[in-house]
Please model this.
Amino acid sequence: MTNFTQLLPAGEPVLGADRLRLAVAAYLGVARFTGLSRTHAESDLRAYLVWCAERRVYPVVAGRPQIELYIRWMQEVRWLKPSTVGRRMSVVAGFYRTCVIDGVLARSPADYVRRPPVPPESPTLGLTHLQLEALLTAARDSANPFDFALVCLLGLLGLRIFEACGANIQDLGEEHGHRVLKVRGKGGKTVLVPLPPAVARAIDRAVGGRASGPLLHNRNGARMDRQAATRRLAVLAAASRMRMPRMHPHMLRHILSA
Model:
C-alpha cells in the first residue's frame, strides 16, 4: 500500500500520522476494494491527500470549506470533467464516512458539500461505422503489428482498454473448437470471449513467435498501457485521412449508426 503518511504537512506529530495511516488502511481495506477498483480508489484518494499536503491541511481535521475549495480547484484549475470530479468526491466522502464509522471523526466534513451535477447520460463520443472502418484500415496497413490488434480488440471485440492491455498470450485458448481469449473484467470477473477470425488473425500477427507475455507491446517492448494506446489511436486517426474526433480508447466501444 502507498505510504500516505508521507503526504502529511511538515511537522505533523507521529500520533496524527498514525491516525491518517489507519484511516486510509481502513478505507482501502481488501473487504471494500479489490483489483483495479482498489487501484483507482487509491489514486483518487492520493490526489486529495496531495492537495491537502500542498496547502498544509491535515486531512483528518479538514472541514467542509476545505473540501469545497478542493472541488473548485478540480473544476477551475485542473478543468476536470464533472464525472471525474464526482468520482473523486465519492472517494473522499467514502474515506470520511469510514473515519466516522471507526470513531476517528465524530462526523464527516463531506456530508453537506455541494457536488457538481453529473450528466445522466454518458457524454462519450463514438465513431461511425465508416470511421471505424477507416481506423481498421489504417491499423491493418501500419508497420506496427500491435496497432491492428489494438483496434480489433477495442472496436470489434468491445473490450475495455484495461482489459485489452491486461491480456496475455497465456490467456489465448480453445473452447468447443473455437478460439477464445480469457478476459479479466471489472470486479475481477473472468470471462471467455470468442475470437472472430479477423480478430484472431490480428492477435496472431501481434504475438508473432512469442510464447508468453502481454498481447500488446508499446514501442519500448513493454506492456502497452492506456496512455500508449491513446497515442497509437491518435496516430492511426491521422493516418486514416478521415475526419475523426479526438481519439480516446473508450470511443471504440460506442459505434454510432450513422
